Amino acid sequence: MGMGRDLRKWQGIEQEFRVGKPFERTDIQTSIALSMNLFDALKNHKFFGYLPAIIHSKDYDGFLRNGSRIYLCNFSFEIATPECRNAYELLKYDKAMEFYVQIAAERVNSRGEKMEHGHDEKMEKMESGGEAERVRHAVQCWRANTELHPAFTRGTHENYSVSRDFNKENFIPFLIIKPIFFGAGGYVSKAFCSMRDMIESAEYVISPRAIATKHIYGGAGVRKHPLFSIKGISNMRIHIDSGEGLRVEIARFLNNAITSFVIHAIEEGIIRDVDGINEPVETFRTLSRNTEGDWKLKTKSGTTINAMDIMSSYIDAIENLFDEKSADNLDIYALKTFERIHDKMSMGLLEDDFLMKSVEWLLKLNIIERGKFIELDSLRESVDYAMRDVLEKDANIIDAMSERDKMSDATEDRMMKISACFAFSNVCDEDFYESVACCAGVERMLTDEEIGESLIYPPPESRGALRVMLLDALRDIGVPPENILVRWNRIVCPPTRDRVVDFDDLDEWSERKMRDLVKRVRETF
Q1: CA 161 from centroid of its chain's CA atoms
Q2: Which contiguous run of DSSP H or E holds residue 61?
Q3: What is the pLDDT of residues 125-134, one digit of tens each?
Q4: Each residue's pLDDT tens digit, 327-343
Q5: Of the candidates 517, 514, 513, 512, which has an alpha carbon nearest to the alpha carbon of residue 501?
Q6: Element counts in the chain: helices (H) and strands (E)
Q7: What span, in angstroms and rounded, lies between the C-alpha atoms of 153 and 151?
Q8: How far apart are CA 359 and CA 367, in angstroms?
Q9: How far apart are the C-alpha atoms of 350 and 345, rounded to whole Å?
Q10: Which residue among 187, 236, 278, 504 sits deepest, i.e. has the most Cβ atoms within 10 Å of its Cβ?
């Protein structure tokens, strides 16, 4: 599925958020209730006092004004970006997603927002107890992909359009080594018992999500926690289940840009006959546990090879792709920046400033584990509140905060670092990431104006833009929301289903073509 001779590639991200309160155990029912509160808060929000944040919803499943989908997935609060045509466009809507969550949490935590699902009883304590009580009872949302024990996961799922004959075998080695360059970083524990034991056995890994991966292929819900799956009927897409909940803008941009280039190169036949990885799932986990460098693995042919050499072959293919297709300035910037990262990693320069500000797992490792850029003692005040309950599913969990007097200094220090790592993924009002990124000098790619536009407007001339125009038109002509069934590529008016609008194509939605379809809908509905 192409877009002509350029390097655009339709893509999107689905993000499940961890929802809870820092000092309260969050069981599944509480998480569901808080997620419903967040959804309801956005239903009540209007930009500039008149533009609704959610333009359509039914049974906690709806669409945001910018074309994103918002819904409850099992017990998780989830937002999926609209269909984006390249990595930079995706970056804007990924960041807008975080701002939507912040808006929802701020409304839930404000005295002026009436909640229906068990949050109101905390408001008096929040209001009367000052800052400490506000922090204790405020709803927060995290992009962490796992709990401290990786059996419990939340997905950051990457989606890319692919051709029907896409050769997934040539893609697997890239996915196996991808976290080395684009891992989010975090702590996982092998223990599943008391909180103290979990803290003491926790290790920092490149990708907690990699540790949680159990299969290479997924699909139809048969296999949980796969590396990826292929989905779709008319529009095929690769669904990367093992994506990373990245917050550093350059990391998110490069992750999606390089991945889309590799997919293009496979589709064009530039990448072919790639030697497979021996024991790929175990290799995926082993590479993620190695934060020291010199990542070696075995291929199916029995050869031991460095991961940097494997990525070199993919980079060579991307360079050939650029010779065949039209690359814009952002494409060139992505490739040149990634080549610089690859070269420095190949030389083992893992403490290089440029690497630490571009590779998220290295940024976290150096800030939290090694105290670079910011004094470790200064973390304590910032994150002391961050994690009382880092493993919400275990009914026998020891209350780590109340046990702190019994902890050794080393265990307490470890707990503080784990808390800081989770705080890094907190997208709400206590935004630890923003403060440490500022101290470290992490550069932003996006302007405030770009983020603001992506909150309000869908990607131009896209299926997301058409979907918003159609929903606005149906609302204007008085079609009741409860009579509309909305999907990514279709709007149906039940119960007779005799009125259906199909817009399956991803490409070629010009302003004129969109206006013509909206006009026909206005005339026939």
Answers
A1: 18
A2: strand 61-64
A3: 444 445 445 5
A4: 999 999 999 999 999 99
A5: 517
A6: 19, 19
A7: 6
A8: 12
A9: 6
A10: 187
Q: How far apart are CA 172 and CA 187, in angstroms?
A: 25
| Three-point CA angle 82, 87, 93, nearest 5° | 35
Burial class of residue 513 (count of CB atoms within 10 Å of its CB; 0-12, 13-18, 19+): middle
- Residue (of 20, 60, 29) closest to 42 by Cα position: 60
State the amino acid at position 357 in one-letter form.
K
- Name which of 288, 19, 280, 281 is nearest 147 in CA terms: 19
Cα–Cα distance, 175 to 184 (Å, whole number): 14
Residue with tokens 């809507």: 93
φ and ψ at residue 284, rounded to 5 degrees: -55, -45
Distance of alpha carbon 108 from alpha carbon 40, whole angstroms: 9
**Rounded to whole angstroms, how far apart are CA atoms 63 and 128?**
36
Backbone angles phi, psi at 348, to 5 degrees: 75, 20
pTM of the model: 0.91
In one-letter notation, the amino acid at residue 319 is E
Task: Give CA–CA dist 288/206, Å, rounded.
Answer: 5
CA distance 187 to 321: 37
Q: Going by C-beta distance under 8 Å and a sequence separation of 6 or more, which residues neighbour residue 398? A: 194, 195, 196
Beta-sheet pairing, 215-217 with 226-231:
parallel
Radius of gyration of the chain (CA): 23
Q: How many CB atoms lie within 10 A of CB 157?
A: 18
CB 98 within 8 A of CB 431: no
Distance CA 211, CA 286 (A): 8
State the amino acid at position 502 in one-letter form: D
- Indicate the Cα dihedral angle 69, 82, 339, 362, nearest 10°: -20
Residue 202 phi, psi dihedral angles, 5° rounding: -70, 145
CA 136 to chain centroid: 26
Cis peptide before 494 (omega within 30 of 0): no
**What is the tens place of the pLDDT at every residue in 176-206?**
999 999 999 999 987 666 777 888 889 999 9
Alpha helices in 72-170 (DSSP H): 87-108, 123-128, 130-137
CB atoms within 10 A of CB 298: 13
